[in-house]
């Protein structure tokens, strides 16, 4: 199946970044990077299904973004660690929210602890949502194949490119998928490093969360490894996701955008 081509590739460049009329779904969309992805896609004109697992304020968050942007934003509860649940919710989004269509799916949900390869068990795989990207890609891919087009974007990790980090060096960053060929037309990913978000956990893997409760020496070590000299705000990522979701990158597939303040250069 050939890559989708914009009906007017020569259109003024800013119009190509518009997502007006597109239907998007974002897993892990109630907080952190996922919340900023939802906000960015909505600001660019897309109607967005905010998928979440346990956030108590997801519906209120979706309603607030909808009011601010003037597009439809609705919350859908989904445990992406469960294959059937993921397929059911994504199909529901396409059928009911998208009126039979789904253009963009962002596989962003994750909650990774720095497990060592020798200590991880099957239960950890499910509870930490290692399967989430695969089940999301699989469900989205079936819809995309039926439509003849679609766009899958995956939030990966900069640790795929730079293994050094002031935590357990054998953690399973290798499992963060860059591409999941499941019949969809386009598959791309974004690999961020540490970001300030409202979600704080006492873990050390820099992907979707940054640890505000870490010892000062660990934070200093992280900062010393980022040539940019600071930790980014999660909102600084949303522009990249808008680009990946837009017609401005129709010929881009299987690629990985690294946004890390120069971390991988060290």
Automatic annotation (TrEMBL):
Keyword Transmembrane helix appears in the UniProt entry: no
Domain of life of the organism encoding this protein: Eukaryota
Entries under Gene3D superfamilies matching the protein: NAD(P)-binding Rossmann-like Domain
4Fe-4S listed as a keyword: no
The entry's keywords: Oxidoreductase
TM stretches of this protein: none
A GO MF term: oxidoreductase activity, acting on NAD(P)H, oxygen as acceptor
InterPro entries: NAD(P)-bd_dom_sf (IPR036291), SDR_fam (IPR002347)
Family: Belongs to the short-chain dehydrogenases/reductases (SDR) family.
Xref: PANTHER family: BENZIL REDUCTASE, CHAIN DEHYDROGENASE, PUTATIVE (AFU_ORTHOLOGUE AFUA_4G08710)-RELATED
The protein's name: Uncharacterized protein
The species this protein was found in: Xylaria bambusicola
């Amino acid at each position: 199946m050939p890559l989708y081509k914009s009906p007017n590739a020569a259109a003024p460049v800013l119009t190509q970044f518009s997502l007006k009329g597109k239907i998007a779904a974002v897993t892990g969309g109630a907080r952190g990077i996922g919340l900023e992805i939802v906000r960015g896609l909505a600001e660019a004109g897309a109607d967005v299904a905010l998928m979440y697992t346990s956030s108590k304020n997801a519906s209120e968050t979706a309603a607030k973004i909808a009011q601010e942007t003037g597009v439809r934003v609705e919350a859908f509860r989904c445990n992406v660690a469960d294959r059937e649940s993921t397929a059911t919710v994504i199909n529901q989004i396409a059928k009911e929210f998208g009126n039979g269509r789904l253009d963009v799916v962002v596989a962003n949900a994750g909650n990774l602890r720095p497990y060592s390869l020798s200590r991880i068990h099957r239960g950890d795989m499910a509870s930490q949502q290692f399967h989430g990207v695969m089940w999301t890609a699989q469900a989205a891919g079936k819809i995309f194949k039926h439509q003849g087009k679609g766009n899958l974007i995956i939030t990966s990790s900069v640790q795929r490119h730079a293994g050094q980090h002031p935590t357990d060096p054998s953690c399973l960053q290798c499992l963060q998928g860059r591409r999941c060929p499941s019949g969809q037309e386009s598959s791309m990913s974004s690999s961020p490093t540490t970001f300030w978000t409202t979600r704080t956990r006492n873990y050390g893997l820099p992907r979707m969360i940054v640890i505000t409760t870490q010892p000062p020496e660990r934070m200093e070590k992280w900062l010393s490894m980022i040539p940019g000299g600071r930790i980014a705000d999660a909102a600084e990522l949303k522009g990249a996701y808008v680009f990946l979701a837009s017609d401005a990158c129709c010929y881009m597939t299987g690629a990985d955008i690294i946004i890390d303040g120069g971390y991988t250069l060290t």
